Amino acid sequence: MQGVLFHINNGWLQKKKTKIAVQPYWHCKEELYSSKEGIIFRGRLVVPVKYRKEILKLLHVSHKGIVSSKIKAREYFYWPNLNRDVEEYVSKCKICQKYQRENQKEILINPEIPGRSWQKVVCDFFFCLKGKEHLLMIDYLSKYVELKPLTTSTTAQSVITVMKFIYATHGIPEELVSDGGPPYNSNLMMNFFREWGIKYHVTPPHFPRANGQIERAVQTVKNSLTKAAEEGKHLYVVLLDYTGCNQQNTCHHQLNF
């Protein structure tokens, strides 16, 4: 990148007169500039060759698919043949290949979209490979994800305690959806919903189409967490992908370039 930086500061020669390593940047030379973070192209950080593999690894920490990975990569970073490199990296991911779903073309029916965030949420449980049970809560509108560990497995009191903590941050939802299994069918949980003014709905576990996009969102998050747990990654690092965190700052901080 030193050659690119030199031309940014001193002017560009004709393409045929520049070094081979610099030529891929010649077509966008008018939109390149230097900053304290590095070289910037259209608001995106230009990544040097030696850091690209690590960037791809960090971008794929949640093990999303090729399309999602390319969208995320193009939002924050730039280098020649970025799309090709992302496609190749994701397609060769052994963890993704292991957990690839057989039926990826299932058509899901989308329910009515809420008018505001945290008006309607869906809850599920996620069992970490290390033996820790978590409550997974996703907002219907924004798809924002909350993941909290449960202190005493999936008892009603444990789930209620975690729910109160989440509600203190985002507000009390008007509606909550789950598959209807324990502990949601307990008297303690039903009393909690009634006292807090939450309408509770059940989606049959064998009829995911009724939940539309949110069911797909739940499965996507759980798949990402399962893959990360198997790799020994911290679950909350994966959630950065689902909480609107600036990925450019995250990667830049971890790689320090």
TrEMBL record:
Residue ranges constituting the Integrase catalytic domain according to the UniProt record: 110-257
Coiled-coil zones: none
Gene3D superfamilies noted in UniProt: 1.10.340.70, Ribonuclease H-like superfamily/Ribonuclease H
A GO term for molecular function: nucleic acid binding
Gene Ontology terms: biological process: DNA integration
Domain of life: Eukaryota
Record InterPro entries: Integrase_cat-core (IPR001584), Integrase_H2C2 (IPR041588), Retrovirus_Pol_polyprotein (IPR050951), RNaseH-like_sf (IPR012337), RNaseH_sf (IPR036397)
Enzyme Commission (EC) number: 2.7.7.49
SUPFAM superfamilies xref list: Ribonuclease H-like
Protein known as: RNA-directed DNA polymerase
